[in-house]
Amino acid sequence: MSSKTAKKQALITTKTGDDGTSALANGKRLRKDSSIFNVLGGCDELNTWIGVVIAHLPQTAESQRKELLRIQADLYQLSAVFAQAPTVEFEQSAVKRIEKASATIQQTLDMGWQTRFLYPGGSPSAAWCDVARTVARRVERDVIAYTREHDAPQPVMHFFNRISDFLYLLRCWLNQEAGVTERHFEIKK
After folding, report:
1. pLDDT for res 30
2. How far apart are CA 172 and CA 64, in angstroms?
3. Helices 124-146 & 35-56, crossing angle to 10 degrees?
4. Residue 163 near residue 56 (C-beta atoms within 8 A)
5. Is the entire prediction scored with pTM above 0.90?
6. What pLDDT does residue 50 have?
7. pLDDT the model gives residue 31
8. What is the per-residue pLDDT for 182?
């Protein structure tokens, strides 16, 4: 493509954040260490780790892949809400949808998984779920800290809790499907 026909592209480097601030979707600039950016950065990190999980899922996990793709879209929507995009609202039905997907997985699991402390890992895809699950828990803590000073709908906190539940169940299912014997921590009495 010649320079005469090339369309002008926006540059990624704007230098507007060089002063230690960043803008929300509504244009308001805040310091980069504001609690909202912990939440937004956590959502981005969680979305990235879910992408890693998706990339490592076996072909037999198509319905789980679809649910994770929906969760990724939910995370973008929720990030837009936190970034104060004026026309975006959080779809509260996402919480119920994840609960239903979790219940579906739970029905396929062998008995006993819920009564033990399972070590992270097993199959590679299950191990990636463990990483994503712990990030979801951290984001949940960041959201709770943020809500001490700002309003957030109750389903938002439920959402992160349900994501971590889903990822935990998914890791159990992936290990079961791969024939991995779970290692578990035994409490000595």
Report:
1. 66
2. 13
3. 160
4. no
5. no
6. 98
7. 65
8. 84
